[in-house]
Amino acid sequence: MNRFQFSDSDGSSDFDEDPSGLPFPEPLSRTSFLAPDFDPANFLSSLTNRHQSLEDLRQELRGLGQLLNKELLDLVNENYQDFLSLGSSLRGGEEKVEGVKVGVLSFQRDVKTIRDKVEARRQEVEELLNEKRRLRTNADIGKDLLDYADRVEELEHRLMIMDKSSQKEPTQDESDTESDLYSGESADSDDDELPDGTPAISLKRMERHAQKFVYLISIAARVGEKHPFLLAQQPRIAKIKSTVLLDLKTALEQATAGGKQGKSDARTMAVLRLYELMGEDVSAVAALKNLKL
């Protein structure tokens, strides 16, 4: 009789599955919560590929929170004595802090006092410097005015302009000054006399007179034409100007009166340059028109 025997092996082993290939999620990392810009919504949205239910995620987060609480409690228990000693060491610190505060406030007051003194001294020095500059300016103006007065008097003496109150007989020096106006210079040696025998005016002397007058004008511009002293000298300056212009007109008439044509033209141009030096171009044109008439 034939017997059939079945193998003792269990065929269900072919259906066993290897659990290592399943997509089990990795535990949450603690460093994920330490980012300075941690945002819960962004963190949850980054867990879409964990293949984990919401309830499992809650359980894992609760477990992580409990672990952190336990670590914190252990840390406090381990350093409990240090915490107690820290509290004891802070007792009485208010008085020390108050003492430091009082010292700082006192230092601030001292600094403010010193700063105020320095500022006051700075203003005082600035005022003294301004006063020094003002005095120096006034001293320079005084020197210019003295120079102005001396040059006016000198020019009046050279032009023989005398006040009626001080008019007197001319001295030898004044006579020499008057004769100097007609004295011959090296440049004018050929024109010492006109064809009719009249002595010619020295152009060198006239040039010096014009230069001295222009220098007076420059001093007045530097000091200020509205200065009381300069205003008081205006009549004297007007006389000097009219006298110089009269001498220039006479020299221009002498230059065009006769003589050699070349030298006459040269003297005429020299006189016109003196008009230009004084800024009296209009007077020069008027003098030339009168000569043509």
TrEMBL record:
Residues 27-100 form the Conserved oligomeric Golgi complex subunit 2 N-terminal domain. Residues 1-29, 161-199 are annotated as: Disordered. One of its GO terms (cellular component) is Golgi membrane. InterPro entries: COG2, COG_su2_N. GO terms for biological process: Golgi organization; intra-Golgi vesicle-mediated transport; protein transport. It is found in: Golgi apparatus membrane. Its main location: Golgi. Signal peptide: none annotated. Residues 161-171 have a biased composition (Basic and acidic residues). Keywords: Coiled coil, Golgi apparatus, Membrane, Protein transport, Transport. It is a peripheral membrane protein. Residues 1-10 have a biased composition (Low complexity). Residues 44-74, 111-138 form a coiled coil. Belongs to the COG2 family. This is Conserved oligomeric Golgi complex subunit 2. It comes from Penicillium nalgiovense. The lineage of its organism: Eukaryota, Fungi, Dikarya, Ascomycota, Pezizomycotina.
